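**Fold tokens**
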Amino acid sequence: MTNVLNAAIPFALLPVLTRYLSPAEYGRVAMFQTLVGAIGAVIGVGMAAALTRKYYEPDLSSPDARDFLGACVQLLVIVSLIVLALLLPFSSPLGGFLGLDAKWIPWAIPVAMGSVLIQIRLTMWQVRGRAASYGAFQVGQSVSNVVLSLLFVTVLLLGAAGRITAQSLSVVVFAAAGLLVLRRDGAISLLSWRPQFLKELIAYGVPLIPHVLSAFVLFSIDRVVITTELGLTNAGIYVVAAQLAGVVSLLFDAVGKAYTPWLFECLARGDETERARVVRSTYAWFLLFLVGAGVAFLVGPPIVVMIAGERYAGGGEVLGWLVLGQCFMGMYALLSNYLMYAKRTGVLSLVTVVSASVYLLLLLILVRMLGLKGAAIAYAAGMAFRLGATWWAAHRCEPMPWFALLAPRRC
């Protein structure tokens, strides 16, 4: 419930922002978010997953748990300072490449740090089953983001800078609050120096960097390519359409959370009749997803104009393709469970890396050929390739009767 509410709050802000921000300004906000996401993928890679894994070790003592959490923060600070030192000399050219003022480049690093700290705070509540605290913190940050955005954008009329400032302040303030709560509860030791924990975090996180960066390419590189090839105005239009298309991911997330435990139970029993039932239900979900994508092609243009306004009408031409890509991603999420069940996560990472490479190539070609629509088609095609590769790999690792339903029945 809180996940849905947390997603709905910024979505409700969309019609307001698109009336006060031009497509170019919206594109500038999107590029700052992309930069923060890229930095966060590097400086915080694997920390939340490593924390979750460490928490369930049977011999983990309370002092070790506090020191391990402290080591996460220490490593985050060290890596962030290294990234800051590397980025500072290139603030002006990088800002020009992304369509941002140079001042926002170094500011993206503390915001990315704050995002990682928030994820750490949420992870600790998650592993302890503190759903109410998790949800309240998450929703509280979203509400603060909305309130500050309304103040800076609609009252003070600061434009893109106001939206970026609002997002940044909400992240930094809640990250600091989360860290203070951890210290108050005695759950973290920031001054304890345990090099073995730092080595453990590095050993866990570094192998995940190709996977994380490939995932970043799959979900964010389109903004960069559109900005450099077509300009900030088109990037803003595309991002609004992408946010509208992202609404369907709530359905996929709900289906996946219900589907996964049921699937694992069926696979564990090893009954062929039950496996055939799994295949039929999977095909039924696939059909439902595709029907939804077809509807998006029909209603996309009026929906975009109704929600975002005439200035963003161009997003209606790409919404259907973006929803189709989201549908392929939802199908992929169902099929990736087979690789997780077979404990072949390395194969999953390989699929992600190859899919990201194919998608980037398609994106560069189709944007130059078809403009904004080409970017959306490339996204749908890239997600389709990822789905197909995952399907093939899943069948190799955990065979299922995918084609038995098409075979002729014997008399």
Summary: Confidence is low (pLDDT under 50) at residues 407-411. The chain is about 85% helix and 0% strand. The longest helix spans residues 272-308.
